[in-house]
Amino acid sequence: MTTTDLGIPGLGGLAGVPTADEPQKAKDFKSDQEVRWCPGCGDYVVLNAVQSFLPSLGLKRENIVFISGIGCSSRFPYYMNTYGMHSIHGRAPAIATGLATSRPDLSVWVVTGDGDALSIGGNHLIHALRRNVNLKILLFNNRIYGLTKGQYSPTSEVGKVTKSTPAGSLDHPFNPVSLALGAEASFVARVIDSDRASVTETLKAAAEHRGSALVEIYQNCPIFNDGAFDVLKDNEEKQRRIVSLKHGEPITFGPEDERYGVVSGADGFRVSKLSEVDESEVVVHDANREDPSYAFALSRLGGQDLSPAVTGIFRSVQRPTYDDLARAQVEEAQQSKPADLQHLLHGNDTWTI
Fold first, then answer.
1. Is residue 2 part of a domain?
2. One domain for residues 137 and 269
3. Same structural domain for residues 20 and 59?
């Protein structure tokens, strides 16, 4: 059995999925459809990253499925030369749950946006995560409704002026990572669309995880919310703000002349200058910690101003998946009491009118 750098069984999420007969390339996963996103959209980076790393999994394309809801990101299945379904608003996790439960030979992916997943689809998302269905969920977060032309979304900042909030949004936004950890998701991560290497590495780790894996992707909408994450892309600012989690390594960040570290405080974690704390006080990241409160505390660092912005894999633990348990339950029932259709139709609870 192989292991990942997180210390968990490798390729767990792919167990039982048939492998390809011949090596594949990125072009094999590109469909013949014209990609119709706006120039500068962060979706392009994610699409290219997915198409590039999927060949490394060695799976047959006909055993990979992308399910999406409604939104700009939900056009994703059209551009993948795999099976896929452009479903209905917010219901992609529910549809994908049925597919993953009934077809263990498939690698099932959900592509959704901050509006699709966290507004009308909020209930479906949290229940898929708490059940630990073997799904890989890519949550594109651009802090706006793009397809419907610029209304505020569940992740828009307080005070955000949009077409639907001309005087500024009054809603406190969701933190998708905190939400997922609150539902005790077994794999939770966050990446930035412009960091191609991190996107690829994290998505591959999600694919190899057996259970629900949610990856939040900070993604730019150049038309309705341009520059939402520019502060994390500026060469100087990103050093001061981005906290990149690496399993087994101290959580530090910042330019060489002004390094910071994450340390434990009375009310959770806090950021301190390394020059003002002892090296032993700096938290060493443990993505495999069973208690989700640790990863949740990390997700609460920073705020709407993205200072700091924690990225990487927050949590990666193993627990039984819903689809494995459901199939085992059905098999056990069939073995202990074989199905008898006639008994079902003419049992004690029938009556004549």
1. no
2. no
3. yes
Residue 23 belongs to a domain = yes
Residue type, 3: T
Burial (CB count <10 Å: 0-12, 13-18, 19+), residue 52: middle
- If one counts every other C-beta atom within 10 angstroms of the C-beta of residue 33, the result is 12
- Give the residues across from 59 on adjacent strands: 19
| Residue 65: domain span | 12-249+286-345
What secondary structure does DSSP assign to 192-248, as a single string? Answer: ETT-HHHHHHHHHHHHHSSS-EEEEEE--BTTTBTTTTGGGTSTTHHHHHEEE--TT
Q: Which tokens in the block code for residue 258? A: 């002004």
Question: Do 183 and 317 lie in a common domain?
Answer: yes
pLDDT tens for 84-124 read 999 999 999 999 999 999 999 999 999 999 999 999 999 99
**Which residue, among 168, 188, 206, has the nearest Cα to 46 in the 3D structure?**
206
pTM: 0.91
> Which DSSP state fits 11?
T
